[in-house]
């Protein structure tokens, strides 16, 4: 959001070349605030603001810009080397990942050899893995030191570490053997040995693990950071709580958007071009529209039945929306329960049994309401059809379609997850559309038996 | 989730009275792990496990139980006083809040006077406010001390503080004037004065602020904790990152569930009784069903038109689902953008202009597909209707309903927020249902002009 109050002030300072004022902004405000206030500045204006802070400060502000702006700044900047060195490894890897391949590769030579190797390794992990999320700037201790020695080490490592509140203890081969918190360290006697103080109940994640599982573990144990290890329990990096919060928010946004039939839109959509927003939304709406065309095909198939009893066609939207609503509801519940780690695909029998009971009860509830309403159909609309027969058809159809929607909606997310597809797609309008079409078939099949 | 491997082992230890083994479990495992493993234990079994740990340890495990289990343990326990004292104030308040009023009140006398007053104050804040989320166990420093003095104070306060990584600096009247991190403290020279070291760019929240805003602020600035102050900037408590993550997850769950037409279900729904699950889901489905009954009323109104051109009725589900889908899509986007703090109700003009353009483009896209499909209507279905006229009616209806759905879907969440209603309700199937009914009216009005 462009800040209407501070932006003109910043612009005025830049125009006047107010070095003292700009240095004050860079020094005194929180990096996130500086990034927010300068959102409306051009690339060259932003660089002119940034250069009034130290390289570390520049890097701190830089990571709070949206990735698109970071990329624009990279293309329009010539003082990049220091800034890239000063960025945290995980933020740097995220930026490199977001740049076009050739731009990213042209930046690598700006880094020192160690940083370059580190960046390449982080970039080699798949985008949504713990490895891609972790930082390699962690503080560590050898197992054979004392509290006093550890505090000395912490002071040395602090400037280059993302957090020094958790200190990971490794043996001679970099195997993770325990951890101590800075809290424990500050409270302990200086002569105590680290292997007596450290906690050994380690909770770790593998570099290949999905970032959602990482965030869930971190939040479950209320950790500040969680260590990432390889198959031999060697320490590769850590994921910190702030990145875990970002993951939770991003994944929730993806789930919500998919549930509403929108593709992932990471940025503020009011700031995207109409073209991009149209493309993102039109793809989904068009797919749903094409799928919904089958309702026409299904209805055309039952055209004769509709011509015979016109009242039947008046209940079509009611019957099919019942399936769509009950299907979305079940799919949403199951998808969310999986996202919260309460359920796995192998629980499908239990889910099926549960949804059979609940779906039947829900079907009977809606069927009863449907029966009452259909029995009140005005005589003019009824034509030659029998009032009670019509009510019975509507009640049975609504009940059966509701049960059918519930079962489809609850099983599809489990099947999707089993097949490695994001179960979020199952809670999207696609399930509703599928149940719409099959609902028409159920409805007219029942009508044929009882009314025609 | 009941753990199938460790539960029998725990049960065996309890049956054998294996005091050493149980003490080992309570000592060596992470409290969250102990709570997970003992999920299947009865109330008395759980108490027999807990009593093998220190009171602090008992409290640490206790807070990881679901609130329902905590409440059951409270009713079935007689060693509560120590445990309640040892719990963090925010967890204790959350437990008291979840208990029936008279049970909660019967527990208050078990607390010491200070703790009791504290609990009463925390309970007085509205449930979703910063005040209800905060803990009063924070570490603080007077402004006139030195680094060495501060480290001594931290060591004294550590056992009773939820975090000692952020230390809040207050003046003589408890006004918050700055903060230092333990990192800064450990790195600084012992003789440096706190008011030279402390950061003054304070980001605070008010006790009445919504917990979602609190979590958003904390995550925006990557804070470990954020201080809660009153109108005079006096420090009341802090909200820590782990509680903020919980809020983010809970609010996301609420949004997702509402989007799928389900009321909030905090617990694992497979573990709830069928009756509770049915009630929660039936209320929503029944409301939607009753609303959807108006599609029948609307269609009955256009019965004569349908009788004249039967092909019209075949396109009804297609036309109305277009409105539902485009409405849900727009509502989801706007609701999420507000949840992420990218948009406010006063931006409505900008949103309206944006959605007018995008909605028109989307309408034209779907209208074009509809035109093609309708022009391919089989002659048998067409009857006496003109093929091209029908195609024109479908194309215009789809385009207009899509635009209408988009506008309704984008404006409703803003209006809801303005009225103080959770905008999540607008992204729920209710909007889709509303647009369904109005879509029928749009469709047949256009058909009347061109076909009849």
Commentary on this structure:
The structure is a homodimer of 452-residue chains. Chain A is mostly helical and 452 residues long. In chain A, the strands form two sheets. A three-stranded mixed β-sheet of chain A has the order 1-2-3. In chain A, a hairpin with a 5-residue loop joins β2 and β3. In chain A, α5 packs across α7, α8 packs antiparallel against α9 and α15 crosses α16. Chains A and B meet through α12, α13, α15, α16 and α17 of A and α12, α13, α15, α16 and α17 of B.
Helix/strand layout:
2 copies of one chain form a homodimer.
Chain A: H1 6-16, H2 19-28, H3 31-37, H4 43-50, H5 55-62, H6 67-75, H7 80-86, H8 89-98, H9 101-107, H10 113-123, H11 130-133, E1 140-142, H12 147-157, E2 166-170, E3 176-181, H13 182-187, H14 194-197, E4 205-206, H15 211-220, E5 225-229, E6 235-240, H16 241-259, H17 274-301, H18 303-308, H19 310-314, H20 316-339, H21 348-375, H22 379-382, H23 387-418, H24 429-451
Parallel strand pairs in A: 1-2, 4-5
Antiparallel strand pairs in A: 2-3, 5-6
Helix pairs in contact in A: 3-5, 5-7, 8-9, 8-10, 15-16, 17-24, 20-23, 20-24, 21-23, 23-24
Question: In a nutshell, what does this entry contain?
Answer:
The first copy, chain A, is mainly α and 452 residues long.
Biggest interface, residues from each chain = A-B, 114 and 114 residues
- The averaged pLDDT of chain A comes out at 87
Termini gap of chain A:
61 Å
Taking all Cα atoms into account, the compactness measure Rg of chain A is 30 Å
Percent in helix of chain A = 55-70%
User: Numbering strands along the chain, what is their spatial order in the largest sheet of chain A?
Assistant: 1-2-3
Describe the sheet with the most strands of chain A. 3 strands, mixed
Number of helices of chain A: 24
Structural class of chain A: mainly alpha
**DSSP, total strands of chain A:** 6
Oligomer: homodimer
Which term fits the overall shape of chain A? elongated
- Which spans of chain A have pLDDT < 50 for at least 5 consecutive residues? none
Q: Topology as H/E string of chain A?
A: HHHHHHHHHHHEHEEHHEHEEHHHHHHHHH
Q: Into which percentage range does the β-strand content of chain A fall?
A: 5-15%
């Amino acid at each position: 959001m462009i800040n209407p109050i501070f932006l003109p002030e910043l612009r005025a300072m830049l125009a006047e070349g107010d070095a003292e004022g700009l240095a004050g902004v860079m020094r005194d405000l929180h990096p996130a605030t500086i990034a927010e206030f300068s959102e409306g500045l051009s690339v060259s204006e932003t660089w002119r603001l940034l250069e009034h802070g130290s390289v570390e400060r520049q890097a701190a502000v830089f990571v709070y810009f949206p990735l698109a702006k970071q990329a624009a700044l990279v293309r329009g900047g010539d003082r990049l080397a220091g800034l890239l060195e000063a960025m945290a490894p995980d933020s740097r890897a995220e930026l490199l990942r977001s740049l076009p391949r050739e731009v990213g590769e042209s930046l690598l030579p700006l880094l020192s050899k160690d940083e370059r190797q580190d960046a390449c390794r982080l970039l080699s992990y798949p985008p949504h893995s713990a490895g891609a999320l972790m930082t390699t700037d962690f503080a560590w201790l050898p197992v054979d030191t004392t509290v006093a020695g550890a505090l000395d080490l912490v002071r040395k490592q602090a400037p280059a570490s993302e957090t020094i509140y958790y200190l990971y203890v490794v043996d001679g081969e970099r195997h993770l053997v325990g951890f101590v918190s800075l809290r424990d360290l500050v409270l302990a006697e200086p002569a105590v040995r680290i292997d007596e103080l450290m906690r050994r109940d380690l909770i770790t994640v593998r570099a290949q693990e999905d970032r959602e599982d990482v965030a869930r573990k971190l939040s479950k144990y209320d950790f500040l950071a969680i260590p990432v290890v390889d198959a031999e329990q060697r320490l590769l990096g850590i994921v910190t709580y702030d990145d875990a919060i970002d993951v939770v928010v991003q994944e929730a946004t993806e789930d919500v958007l998919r549930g509403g039939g929108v593709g992932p839109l990471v940025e503020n959509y009011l700031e995207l071009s109409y073209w991009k927003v149209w493309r993102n939304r039109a793809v989904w709406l068009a797919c749903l529209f094409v799928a919904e065309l089958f309702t026409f095909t299904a209805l055309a198939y039952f055209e004769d039945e509709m011509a015979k009893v016109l009242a039947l066609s008046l209940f079509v939207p009611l019957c099919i929306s019942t399936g769509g609503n009950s299907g979305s509801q079940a799919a949403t519940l199951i998808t969310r329960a999986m996202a919260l780690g309460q359920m796995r695909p192998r629980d499908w029998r239990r889910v099926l049994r549960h949804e059979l009971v609940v779906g039947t009860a829900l079907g009977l509830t809606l069927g009863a309401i449907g029966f009452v309403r259909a029995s009140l159909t005005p005589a003019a609309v009824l034509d030659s059809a029998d009032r009670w027969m019509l009510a019975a058809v509507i009640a049975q159809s609504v009940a059966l379609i509701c049960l059918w929607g519930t079962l489809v909606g609850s099983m599809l997310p489990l099947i999707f997850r089993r097949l490695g597809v994001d179960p979020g797609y199952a809670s999207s309008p696609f399930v509703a559309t599928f149940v719409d079409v099959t609902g028409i078939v159920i409805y007219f099949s029942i009508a044929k038996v009882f009314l025609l």
